[in-house]
Design brief:
With 367 residues, this protein is an alpha/beta fold. The chain has helices spanning 8-83, 90-113, 294-297, 330-336, and strands spanning 135-139, 144-153, 161-170, 173-182, 188-193, 216-222, 226-228, 232-247, 253-256, 259-267, 279-281, 286-289, 301-302, 310-314, 319-321, 325-328, 348-353, 361-366. The longest helix has 76 residues, at 8-83. It is rod-shaped. The model is unreliable at 202-206 (pLDDT under 50).
Length: 367
């Protein structure tokens, strides 16, 4: 029997097998590469979303610190108004300031808890509205943004803390981060210091020896009401009148190169032809009055000028009237009338400010 051998078919089969193996290999490689590319893109998107969320944490920390400073500034303005009210005693001022601190601290905590766009209407009202944005666009074209999903005060913590949840968003990926911020327990503390008298938180004269009717080149005080009905001159030194001074005649007083304090001044005369006619204040004279009517103040005659006389009157409504006469706040009064010696035995109060830190982050949690 004759056997015929022909290898042409084997060559074709082998070629097909090799081509098939190559196709499978490159297909697997391409699929693996595509999957790897997707994983890289997914990881990259994840990192981007985390980065955007971290930006959100930093943004809200800065905004919350600014909110704390704003509330503190509003409280300071109210306290200044209270301190300028010389009709309140030191104990009354301390009590009012303490109540204001509680009110503003509560306002701060409630406002911070409601920065997540007022999602809980039973908890948040328009009074807690602030300028913090619950959504911040980073790139509007590519939909990159972070969103404040939640904010709440942690009642379980030993000190006041605020927890926020921020979501960072990039195309096809979102990631969430929580942060816990420390917020001030108090904005300030007020300590009442009892003394031997009611006090007002205002300058209360004492210390100087009695004048004994000697007002020339003397540093002295006068206790009790005083009435001037004849000519008098104060020159050099310092004189403190701790009670009411009354002037009953025109053009009888002259002050030269002297500091004078009067707790209360009453002038019973009237202006003559519209001109001041009660006390004439010469150069380098300073008159500080705790209580006087504006009509009586206009009867004082100051010479003004660079070295001229100045009159400072304690008032809840600071303003200036004619002839270098100033109605000033409590602080301005104390600054310009610092020759007045205060009674350390009177009631007083001490305000201690709370330090506000710019970095309030306690903990960051990645979800």
């Amino acid at each position: 029997m004759k056997i015929v051998q022909n290898e042409k078919g084997y060559t074709l089969l082998l070629t097909l097998i090799i081509i098939f193996i190559i196709i499978i290999f490159f297909s697997s490689f391409a699929l693996s590469a595509m999957n790897q590319q997707k994983q890289v893109e997914n990881t990259d998107n994840n990192y981007q979303a985390v980065g955007v969320a971290e930006m959100g944490i930093e943004y809200y920390q800065a905004e919350i610190v600014n909110q704390i400073y704003k509330i503190k500034s509003d409280l300071d303005a109210e306290i200044e108004r209270i301190e300028d009210n010389h009709n309140l005693s030191a104990s009354e001022k301390a009590s009012v300031i303490s109540s204001l601190e509680l009110e503003f601290s509560s306002k701060l905590r409630t406002g911070l808890e409601c920065i997540d766009d007022y999602k809980d209407t039973s908890r948040c009202h328009d009074t807690e509205k602030n300028d913090i944005l619950p959504v911040k666009e980073i790139d509007t074209t590519n939909s990159v943004k972070f969103t404040l999903l939640n904010s709440k005060i942690l009642s379980s913590s030993t000190k006041p803390q605020l927890e926020i949840l921020v979501e960072g968003s990039v195309p096809n990926k979102q990631n969430k981060i929580s942060a816990i911020f420390n917020i001030p327990e108090t904005l300030l503390t007020v300590t009442f210091i009892p003394g031997n008298g009611p006090g007002t938180g205002n300058p209360i004269p004492e210390v100087y020896p009695d004048c004994n009717n000697d007002y020339i080149d003397n540093e002295c005080k006068v206790d009790g009401d005083v009435l001037f009905s004849s000519d008098f001159t104060f020159s050099g030194g310092t004189v403190q009148f701790n009670d009411t001074v009354t002037i009953t005649k025109k053009n009888i007083g002259n002050l030269n190169n002297i500091n004078v304090y009067m707790d209360k001044l009453v002038i019973t005369t009237e202006k003559e032809n519209g001109n001041p006619n009660s006390i004439k204040l010469g150069k380098n004279s300073k008159l500080c009055i705790r209580e006087i009517s504006e009509s009586d103040a206009k009867k004082l005659n100051t010479q003004g000028g660079k070295d001229g006389a100045k009159v400072y009157i304690l008032s809840n409504n600071p303003h200036r009237i004619e002839n270098a006469i100033y109605f000033v706040s409590q602080k301005e009064f104390e600054d310009n009338c610092n020759f007045i010696k205060t009674n350390t035995n009177q009631d007083d109060y001490l305000i201690k400010e709370t330090d506000i830190e710019d970095n309030i982050t306690s903990e960051v949690i990645y979800h």
